[in-house]
Amino acid sequence: MKYPRLKNFINGNFIESASDRKLEVISPGDGTLLTEVPLSDAADLNDAVSGAKAAFQHWSKTPIKERVQVFFKYKYLLEQHLQELAALCSEENGKTIGESIAEIEKCIELTEFACSLPQLVTGELLEVSRGVECRTEHVPLGVVASIVPFNFPSMVPNWTIPNAIALGNCMIIKPSEKVPISCGRLAELLTEAGLPPGVFSIVHGDEEIVGGICDHPGIEAVSFVGSTRVARLVYQRATSNYKRCLALGGAKNHLMVMPDAIPGMTAQNVAASMSGCAGQRCMAASAMVGVGNVDHIIEKICEEARKIIPGENLGAVINKASKERIEQYITEAEEQGAKVLVDGRGTKVEGKENGTYVGPTVIDRVTPGMSVAKEEIFGPVISIMRTNTVDEALAIENANPYGNAASVFTQNGGVARYIIERASAGMVGVNVGVPVPREPFSFGGWNESKFGVGDITGKSSIEFWTKLKKSTIKWNAEAGVNWMS
Ligand code: NAD
């Protein structure tokens, strides 16, 4: 085992879990046993909540301009430790080192946004009648929880940590049991940056502890990022306990390619979107709808896909079960009549025989009823459908129950606008394969890609992590009773 068994992080200390349930953490890149992660129980969670509640007394009263000083230092530490954090991310998740560097750079951008929060939460004040003013303030909620998936071991935690904490909350995070190591390093950096004990805690575990988080009376709000199946469960359970909840789910993102799209640029974007992070991004292109004759573009997409080499510029998928599931999707589509133009099945990387790799895969002549057209594959696979009109392409996109992202590739502004207006997705792109809004714009999908109100990052997250206090204040000494008395 490369690293010692992981511990929870509670009250500023790494401590053993009370539970003896545990899981092995295996590197997808080469099959190395990295560590063991404890599957914590209710006693661990109770300790974390008690510590966080105690810390909230002081942290919530610390002025926000003082609170963000921690995040200025944290940003600096992320920059200083960028290479080391990226290496850890690649090791536990299997993505390429370039992708991990980009992930840590995104953590830095997210932290920069949190540093700007004092500018955004000044509240409002108005003299509503002579001598009487109304004022609003953003007040932190208390102890909040963040439950995160495997595909971004550092970035998704940093969607929530800096904003929630800078806004005065104390956070308990439940890392993915598949990639639990990076969060511990983030805890060390937050501590080095000056975050007081109890303000940030880690409780490792699986679905049992997620249930505990949803039920715990000491936790005010739960944010979740993961599959739609679990997002639904978490949203239902947390809100049935009267907690605030924002649960981001899975995705099936459509790229609509018009015949006038610039072939080279479009092909590069499609190939990069479907294969980046081995297709394990909730913003990955998973389905492409070619409108009219786009054969010349599909040819180029295949050329680009063939340049993507597993173990070099393509990382591993998370585990053996995932590799088998992805390959099964490809086989099923082929059996149903689709044409596999570039086939990533059976990929082995020399020297990394225990790694779990799937090569880039381009499937053409997919029909809307096939599983590869409808379901989230979460692997480096693009399923291509064909239509004659833009409206038919939109009908396919609109019929999908998810709604994270959609993109159009065209040189026609009118067509682009038509699609922006009609795509049923929270994040839409024009000539962009991965339309992730950058800070300060907020991240969040629609439909079954998100349950709850607001978005998880950017300005829209402020409403989720705070409650509004409205004060009406009279400073003049005039007597007389009116409706404000
Ligand atoms: P997952 O839903 O399996 O797990 C997410 C978290 O939920 C983990 O911490 C896990 O321990 C916990 N969990 C798993 N099963 C549970 C259960 N039955 N009850 C309670 N908790 C449970 O997701 P994953 O496989 O880690 O991540 C991949 C998924 O996440 C994909 O569907 C992807 O699209 C989605 N994702 C979405 C976004 C977004 O912004 N919408 C971002 C990243 C990932």
Structure overview:
It is a single chain. The chain is of the alpha/beta class and 485 residues long. It folds into 2 domains: 269 residues, 3-Layer(aba) Sandwich (Aldehyde Dehydrogenase, Chain A, domain 1), CATH 3.40.605; 178 residues, Aldehyde Dehydrogenase, Chain A, domain 2 (3-Layer(aba) Sandwich), CATH 3.40.309. Helices cover 39% and strands 21% of the residues. The protein has 16 helices and 20 strands. The strands form 5 sheets. Strands 14-15-16-13-12-17-18 form a 7-stranded mixed beta sheet, with helices on both faces. It has a 6-stranded mixed beta sheet with strand order 9-8-7-10-11-19, with helices on both faces. A 3-stranded antiparallel beta sheet has the order 5-6-20. Helix 10 links the parallel strand 12 and strand 13. Helix 2 runs antiparallel to helix 4. The longest helix has 19 residues. The termini are far apart. The mean pLDDT is 97. Nicotinamide-adenine-dinucleotide binds next to helix 8 and helix 9.
N-to-C span: 69 Å
The major beta sheet can be summarized as: 7 strands, mixed
Give the distinct bound molecules. Answer: nicotinamide-adenine-dinucleotide
Which runs of at least 5 residues are low in confidence (pLDDT < 50)? none
Shape descriptor = globular
Count of β-strands: 20
Give the helix/strand class: alpha/beta
Taken as a percent bin, the fraction of beta residues is: 15-25%
CATH superfamily of the largest domain: Aldehyde Dehydrogenase, Chain A, domain 1
Strands of the widest sheet, in order across it, are: 14-15-16-13-12-17-18
